[in-house]
Amino acid sequence: MLAYTIRxxxxxxxxxxIALYLVHVGVSATTDPLAPFYLCxxxxxxxxxxxxxxxxxxVSIWVRPFIWxxxxxxxxxxxxxxxxxPVTEVLADRAWNTALIAVPAFLIGSTVAVxxxxxxARHQYSxxxxxxxxxxxxxxxxxxxxxxxxxxxxFGVQLENWFGIKPFNTGRKTGETPLEVARDxxxxxxxxxxxxxxxxxxFGRATMLENLEQDYIRTARAKGVRERRVVWRHALRNALIxxxxxxxxxxxxxxxxxxxxxxxxxxxxxxxxxLRALGDVDLDLILGITLFTALITILFNLLADIMYxxxxxxxxxx
Length: 318
What we know:
Layout: H1 2-30, H2 45-55, H3 64-73, E1 79-80, E2 85-86, H4 87-122, H5 127-141, H6 144-163, H7 178-212, H8 215-222, H9 227-255, H10 259-264, H11 270-279, H12 283-311
Antiparallel strand pairs: 1-2
């Protein structure tokens, strides 16, 4: 296991380097930070020179990424001009805000998805199976921004009109106490959780049905093992293996910034910061968020591979 982990980590270093290099070159080739200064030269020559020096614009775009890599290895990810703070501070603050909605959404979504998967597989073609299948297809067909707007309108606006109460907030996180933070987190987290449940429950149902038809399940039933133990210990354990891959990808995507949901709810996370960085051509922040997202994607995919061996001892990673 240790040799496999080290090998995977070593393989990810060149992939991470190539990804960041391509992002840096792509953004540099398609944007021009000096555009606002062209009309005011030579009056704004000082500002022009500062931008050139800050972004190394006097160096070839094929060489600039290596300068950024050298600074990054020393812990300097640059300065975010769109937010007005060092990139490391922006990442720490915005990543925490994103985690506040991403982690609860993932935990709730994955738990409910597993429960619905088991129920639908055990009661195939029943009314409940058709009902939850219809809801999941509705969730898959509904765009993320539509779902977020519907949830925001019902729970953040209409409840106050109907009952004179506003149990949840719909705007930027302002809470200080745990209860206030929970009020702020609930709606965007619920929006993300519903999207996760819709996709994962369909995938989980298919894998559960496949495992319930396997020979080892028939053998366990023939030996008199109780049905609950057959389903929850034997079938579900093997059905979780494909789900682990999906969970690794979905959690890393959520932590990397749920752009649409954060924008709808004005949530100050990585998603809104990334959109702002793209609009303002904030190269350092774009690269910082890309680096963060790539690292957590690599980490969670590595954890998923390790979990394969835990769930199925027949899998030997070494």
